[in-house]
Amino acid sequence: MAVLRIFLLGAIGLISHSALCAQTGASNSGNSLTESTTRGPHFDASASKNVTALLGKTAYLNCRVKNLANRTMSPQVSWVRHRDVHLLTVGRYTYTSDQRFRAIHQPHSEDWTLQIKYPQHRDSGVYECQVSSTPHLSHFIHLTVIEPDTEIVGGPELFIDRGSTINLTCVVRHSPEPPAFIFWNHNDAIISYTSSRGGVSVSTERGETSRSVLLIQKAKPSDSGNYQCNPSNARPANVTVHVLNGEHPEAMQHGGNQRMGPSLGALAFISYVLLAYC
Ligand SMILES: *[C@@H]1O[C@H](CO)[C@@H](O)[C@H](O)[C@H]1NC(C)=O
Ligand SMILES: *[C@@H]1O[C@H](CO)[C@@H](O)[C@H](O)[C@H]1NC(C)=O
Ligand SMILES: *[C@@H]1O[C@H](CO)[C@@H](O)[C@H](O)[C@H]1NC(C)=O
Ligand SMILES: *[C@@H]1O[C@H](CO)[C@@H](O)[C@H](O)[C@H]1NC(C)=O
After folding, report:
1. Angle CA 108–114–118, to nearest 5
2. Whether residue 145 has pLDDT greater than 90
3. Least confident of 6-10, 39-43, 57-61, 203-207
4. Is the pTM of this model over 0.85?
5. Signal sequence: where (predicted)?
6. CA of 135: how far to CAs of 45, 49, 79, 110, 273, in Å?
7. Ligand 4 site: residues with CB under 6 angstroms?
8. Which residue ranges make up each domain of the chain?
């Protein structure tokens, strides 16, 4: 009798111990490394990240699945476009008729990659990596397609006082390669750095973000007008420069400042009102 009671107590102890373990195991799921080898298929989120792609430059969406197959089960990994629930790939096969998509998978690899050639803005959105286990598992990856962007700092209008330096900085971001060259135009004519005007210089710095700084010393009213920055492989950008002839001392400053716009407008309005009452 005593032996049986000890056995029962032991059994209850064992059960409650395993229940406790199961509970702590569940609360740890997702970050316990030792457990990851014993559970079924799951995603490696650190190797299956959101992707930012350049317009037209081949993009790769990766999905890494751990413990995908065992002796009895071998689930498939599929890619589904969320926007229209379109099945793109299943395993190593490409299902969609859109030839820009391709499934890439090396045997024995944990990576199931979706290749997208010539990505367009409309390809931006959510892609689902799905594992056909029971129940299904899903991991969502956001693709963002961006394009080169050109900006002239302080634009679209710059007010500069006569005699000071016009300093225009053109910034080119997200170009597939640094631009081979960046041209500057003034009222549609290419700016010459060796013209008789003198005092015109440019310095260009190429990289992931490229910068071209155009400096025009001793600004004259004839330097007013539209300035355009033309990178070889990105859209142009432009600013309108107003060289002030000393008529509004309050608006004068070194370098450009867009915020001068409204106050100038207000000044013009006040002058107009004063004139109207004369
Ligand atoms: C992926 O992008 C979406 C939308 O921008 C965001 O909500 C999500 O947190 C991102 N996921 C990761 C892992 O960064
Ligand atoms: C094999 O994996 C499936 C789920 O994918 C799981 O239900 C099953 O228990 C696993 N079998 C073995 C022997 O690990
Ligand atoms: C021109 O402006 C940029 C910022 O837009 C600044 O970094 C640079 O020092 C300026 N150069 C001169 C000569 O004023
Ligand atoms: C200047 O830029 C604006 C806005 O990007 C654009 O609408 C305009 O056509 C450009 N003007 C010239 C002369 O390039």
Report:
1. 145
2. yes
3. 6-10
4. no
5. 1-21
6. 19, 23, 17, 20, 76
7. 226, 228, 238
8. 42-146, 149-253
Atom of ligand 4 nearest to the CA of 188: 13
What spacing in Å lies between the alpha carbon of 100 and ligand 1's midpoint? 24
- Quick one: how far is CA 49 from the chain centroid? 13
pLDDT at 245: 83
Euclidean distance between CA atoms 224 and 176, whole angstroms? 33
Whether 5 shows a pLDDT value over 60: the answer reads no
Question: Is the CB of 133 inside a 6 Å radius of any atom of ligand 2?
Answer: yes
Q: Which residue puts its alpha carbon closest to atom 14 of ligand 3?
A: 167
CA of 50 to the centre of ligand 1 (A): 6
**Residue nearest atom 3 of ligand 4, based on CA coordinates:** 238
Which pair of structure tokens corresponds to residue 12?
A: 């209850």
Q: Could you tell me what percent of the chain has a pLDDT over 90?
A: 56
Per-residue pLDDT of 215-249, as tens digits, reads: 999 999 999 999 999 999 889 999 999 999 876 54
Residues 203 and 211: their CA atoms lie apart, in Å, by 8
- Give counts: helices (H), strands (E), the chain: 3, 19
Burial of 44 (0-12, 13-18, 19+ CB in 10 A): middle
Phi/psi region, residue 226 (left: phi>0; alpha: psi -120 to 50; beta: rest), is: beta
Q: Which helix (H) or strand (E) holds 263?
A: helix 260-277
Sheet holding 59-66, edge to edge: 42-43, 59-66, 111-116, 101-104
**Which protein residue's CA is at the shortest distance from atom 12 of ligand 1?**
50
Number of other CB atoms surrounding residue 12 within 10 Å: 10
Domains 42-146 and 149-253 share a fold: yes
Give the fold, CATH level 3, of 149-253. Immunoglobulin-like (2.60.40)
Ligand 3 mean position to 169 CA, how many Å? 7
